[in-house]
Amino acid sequence: MSDDFANGTEIAVKGLNLWYGKNHALHDISINIPKNSVTAFIGPSGCGKSTFLRCLNRMNDLIPGCRIEGDVNINGEDIYSKDVDVVDLRKRVGMVFQKPNPFPMSIHDNIAYGPRIHGIKKKEIDGIVEGALKAGALWGEVSDRMGISALDLSGGQQQRLCIARTLAVKPEVILFDEPCSSLDPISTGKIEDLILKLKKDYTIVIVTHNMQQAARISDYTAFFLLGDLIEFGKTGQIFENPREKATEDYITGRFG
Amino acid sequence: MFSNAKLNEKIAFSLLKIAMGLVVAFVLIILYDIISNGYGVISLEFITSAPRKGMTEGGIHPAIVGTLYLITCSMIVALPLGILAAIYLTEYAHPGKTTWLTEMAISNLAGTPSVVFGLFGLAVFVKYFGFGDSILSASLTLALLILPVIIRASQEALLTVPKEYREASLALGVTKWETIRKVVIPAAIPGIVTGAVLSIGRVAGETAPILLTGAAYFYPKLPGSIYSQFTALPYHLYVLATAGTNIAKTRPIQYGTALVLLMIVLGVNLIAIYIRNHYRKKLQR
Amino acid sequence: MSNRYLKEKGIESLLFASGAVAVVALLLLCLFLFKEGALLFENYPVSDFLTDRRWLPTSTNPQFGLLPLLFGSLIVTVGSILFSVPLGIAAAIYISEIANPRVANFLKPFTELLAGIPSVVYGFFGLVIVVPMIQDTLQLPTGQTALTGSIMLGIMALPTIISISEDAISSVPRSIKEGSLALGSTKWQTIYKVTVPAALSGISAAVMLGIGRAIGETMTVMMVTGNSAIIPGFPSGLFESVRTMTATIALEMGEVPQQSDHFHALFAVGSVLFITTLILNIVASYIKRRYRFSL
User: Fold this and answer.
1) Shortest CA gap A84–chain C (Å)
2) Distance of CA B156 to the CA centre of its chain
3) ipTM, 2 decimals?
4) Residue B29: which pLDDT band, with cuts at 50, 70 and 90?
5) Which CATH architecture has domain B44-284?
6) Cβ of A103 and B162 within 8 Å?
7) Is A91 in contact with A169 (CB distance < 8 Å)?
8) Which of A41, B201, C25, C282 is deepest in the core (most CB within 10 A)?
9) Architecture of domain C46-294
10) Is C6 on the interface with B (CB under 8 A)?
């Protein structure tokens, strides 16, 4: 697997195995994810791509009976080592979920939630909120009604709000778990544009079941099948010239 | 055969309707009796003055104050304890023997007769801790009585908070407790308040436990401290209706007391139902 | 990091302790109740307590026979169940299966109001309205009878029975009901051949809890049943005065000297009452868990 990324490696995973109780869900995954680029995980549903994504910010810790072995290094730090603070890790590795999940609070309070808890001073909060909403491409639409409930926004706006909320915590990596699966094409387009803009400053990993989306926005693509990482490479190569038969079958739609 | 089945259905449905009608009638008759007979008795004087002439005249002010004392003191104890216990059970406890035991204890406490709580309060608070016949003993007893109500209501409220809120907050690098404090509890507040309000109604209406732990047969003054004896609305009504000096003559006062008690308890219930429906609509949006 | 970790752990321990209060409370309840009750048996044999046919706590040669009180509780409870179970289940069926949803949404909180009325108000209503009514219509020497208690307790048990049965009935999956209707059954046939049997476990749990509520009720029975501690016959006892376990405790505790045999006897009665409701609760939650719909 190629390791000579232009911007260097952000996440390095070696020999990762995951079990849900007795069910061996991920088999011996090894992958290096490059800095400041977009890496897409694709594969049929149930292939383990979302599960693997959740290993990168240890959200799987919350699931009872889930056991993980192997190394995951983010910026050279083993995130499963004993003295890692999971809470700090999640601050560094943000996540945007499948369904937009704003808190039942105002737009402003949604964005301010993270910084406030992390002890940012009051007078700095407004600036951070504005910056995050601008970076999240939502500022223009909501700047005049920051006090309304976030639940009153459209689905697409809610998802951009969730992205802005993640940005406000200033992460290094952002994980997207099928962020557009519940959105219409126009909202999806806006989110994709946003992701492309964000890769300048962040390392982005996105799980998607939509191959066109992966082809449109990602620099690298990993194909998962039944808990195995089948193939990983430049997106162009994966889509035009896959090395593995299974990848080709999936890409060309001869699959599931 | 076909028409027979149809006929059966008609008869059965009519019977069910009659049963429902009976239940509704019970509610209406009881409410009507108390309201129509108690309505004329209630006045500002009735609720602000003390009983006179061996309780045959005057108002019920001490009983109202006693009931308010009981509500306040028992809620101070039971509300935080109940909410914290509910948070533990829904957010932290893993399925296992300890959790099973706790759940079991809660549902059995909920089903224990109130007079048994009275005995317990008598043995533990009045005698063992030496609080004597007092507001304190009665309030602590009532606090235990409503603890399961508050725990159950809070648990239900916490369970309706979507998992997504918790994940979103945790993924922002927020600790579990901060997540619970800042996101989960605020979202569950309506349900928790509903439970709290319902248990206020319960405290106001209970008689047997306070009978054994500190209510005084005749107490025409205001309680001085939480260590003094007291009277409360339900107990006052009981005494007037069964052991007063002149039961027939004080009937209007009895009705008035019953109506004030009913207004407090049902008012509190209506508030709880309103809160529940109001926020249920809001959440479904 | 360790600071924050400690804080989180500290809070978790505090929460755990709060949860443990319920367990501790129940244990203490058993401990104090049984301890005080057992003191009776130092002076008065358990066998006499369980078999004596008289409750004469204040006579010079006191007798503490549980039987009249136990049977008093039983007859009032049985009477109330005979009346409230069919009525409650019928109302629950009506609410969940027949009434249109808007009416049902109104009826549910309305029946919950019955649960909100304090027991002393039921007792008062029973004493002032129902007692004379029973006396007049049945031509009895007194209207304070087991029957009066049964009627009032039945009304009080209704909301418990209705709301839990209603939950059970409306949680029967629609697919099962539709399966029956699609075979050409009428709505009523579907209800009594399919829906109600499928909800039977929940309904039985409701009945158990209703019995628990009735047997543990104090103020109402104390005010309307006349409180004479005589073993009642059945069904003739329905028309006579009886005294329940609960009423005995509430009536007599005010006047007994602490640490006397009488005092301990009341705790012994309380223990019997507690164990009875404990068993009812455990059986109810067992039935509910065992037969829950897993769809």
Assistant:
1) 9
2) 17
3) 0.90
4) very high
5) Orthogonal Bundle (1.10)
6) no
7) yes
8) A41
9) Orthogonal Bundle (1.10)
10) no
